[in-house]
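Session log. Operator J.P. requested a structure for one protein chain; no other inputs attached. Running the standard single-chain path with token output.
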Amino acid sequence: MVKNLYPRCAVCGVKVCENRGGRVADATPPTEKMPPFCPMKLMPDIFAEALVEYNKPEIREFARLASVQEFQCYERSPDGLRTKLPRIEELVQFARKCDYKKLGLAHCGGLAGEAKLLTEILENNGFQVVSVQCKSGAVAKEKIGVRPEEKIAGPEAWETMCNPIAQAMLINRAGVDMAVMLGLCIGHDTLFIKYCEVPLTVLAVKDRVFGHNPLAALYTSETYYKRLKSRLD
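Structure written below.
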């Protein structure tokens, strides 16, 4: 990699990797327009390595089905292209495409109601659902070194730690075809991902302020939450 340069796709204004100019199928992207931080320029070997992985039959088919699922989320109307599927419906459709029968649901205890609704939807669509909530195991927070003053319910309260490693291990042992993560906290979700050994997707992430829609903070970062864009000294 070129010294002091690293991929920065988020700030790219060119995006030669996308079809912004109406290129026809199999056309070559205008690589001469790539900015110096473009990963296609900095690390072309990575893309060659990735294609080797995609050429593995099981990976190639999985990737193909994912692209088909993306395609089916849109429909053409007289007014142009429009979306039509919520993520829960996408989950059902994609799991069927992959011929999955048994799904593992790792959910936050604070989203028990949502987990119950999701389980009902998935079971009504023919799936077996193994669900494990984050507090499973009833392990006191002191076991991982949490101090009394760091407990949400207060120093004197008995408080269960979130247990994402056990969640992952239970779901692994249950022999599910795919895991679905619902509302785990930051950090806990990271541990679950680390220990989960089956294909994994995320239905929703935790955001206590915005009803589990963290992008709302980005959408209001020019107004109500402009403090988020303040530079640190």
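Operator note: Residues 1-55 form one domain.
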